Amino acid sequence: MKKCLMISALAVSVCLLGGCDFFRQLAGRPTSQDIAAKRERIEREAEAHQRRLDSLKAVQKQISDSLATLDSLRKTKDAIRSTKQLATRADYQPEYRYYVMVGAFSSQANAARQAAKVEAAGYPATVIPFKNGFNAVGVCPSNSLTEVFASLRKVRQERFCPADAWILNNESL
Question: pTM for the full model?
Answer without folding.
Answer: 0.54
